[in-house]
């Protein structure tokens, strides 16, 4: 984020949800994104390394929907998650755009150096509503955690044309889409 972005008042439900997510204690990164967004790592026994934000919900956006972000990566690729989070947070802060659910955001070229990763896709998480929905003390949904998937252009094309579930079926599992160093599996469909 560049410059000061006015933040909307916070709601306790968001940091409480993020810190309690997956029933694990958070590991808080020293550096914040844009000075105000905290980044947290969780390592569930039955899932991949999950990087989450706390503070995105306070950045105004075009829809007024309050969101936090999550990215799943293989251990050692937390830096890739940070790149993706910075990109999306910049879009929210500067252009007030939030990533649409199940609609790929595609770039002209890979945004992770030395990889084929050139697209982002928001999907439901593997954990379901208890992770995806942020609820206040009264049990009302006040926002969401949006899980970002880091995709190649070919994977984004498949997801855009046939859907997320079809992409997962094509590659065999969500885990097959975690390693950002994977090769392009679908040729070079071109950027749309």
Our Rg estimate from Cα atoms comes to: 16 Å
Class by alpha and beta content: alpha+beta
The count of β-strands is 8
| N-end to C-end Cα span | 26 Å
How is the biggest beta sheet arranged? 8 strands, mixed
Order of helices and strands, N to C?
A: HEEEEHEEHEEHH
Percent of residues in helical segments?
Answer: 25-40%
Strand content of the residues, in percent?
15-25%
Q: Number of domains in the coordinates?
A: 1
Global morphology? globular
This entry's quaternary arrangement is: single chain
Q: Mean pLDDT, as a whole number?
A: 92
- SS summary, helix count: 5
Low-confidence stretches: none
Q: What characteristics describe this protein?
A:
single chain; 192 residues; 8-stranded mixed sheet; globular
Kindly summarize this structure in a few lines.
The protein is built from five helices and eight strands.
Please tell me about this protein's structure.
The structure is a single chain. The protein is 25% helix and 23% strand. With 192 residues, the protein is α+β, with helices and mostly antiparallel strands. It has one domain (13-177). Helix 4 packs across helix 5. The protein starts with 12 loop residues before the first helix and ends in a 21-residue tail after the last helix.
Set down the secondary structure blueprint.
Blueprint: H1 13-20, E1 27-28, E2 38-42, E3 49-54, E4 67-73, H2 78-95, E5 105-106, E6 117-123, H3 129-132, E7 133-135, E8 141-152, H4 153-162, H5 164-171
Parallel strand pairs: 4-8
Antiparallel strand pairs: 1-2, 2-3, 3-4, 5-6, 6-8, 7-8
Helix pairs in contact: 4-5
